[in-house]
Amino acid sequence: MKQFGWFLTGFSLVLLFQVFFVWRYAWDWSILVRVGADKPHRSLIEQELGPVICVDSGGHDGQVNYLIGRDPLDRHATSLVLSLSDNPPYRFRRILYPLLAGGFGSFGPYGVVCGLIFWTAVGGGLIAASIANLTGRWQLPGLVIPLALMNPGIYLSAQVLTNDVLAMGLALCGVALWFGNREMAAGIVLAAAVLVRETSILVSLAIVLTELRSGGRLRQAIALSLISGMPFLLWSLWVRLNMPGGDGTENLSLPFVGFYRSLYRWEDRPRVAFGIVTMVFTGASLWIACKTDSRFIRIACLVWIVLAFVLSDAVWEHPGNVLRAISPLWAFAALGYGNLKQQSGVDPGNPTGNAACMDSPSE
Question: Residue 351 gets which letter from DSSP?
Answer without folding.
Answer: P
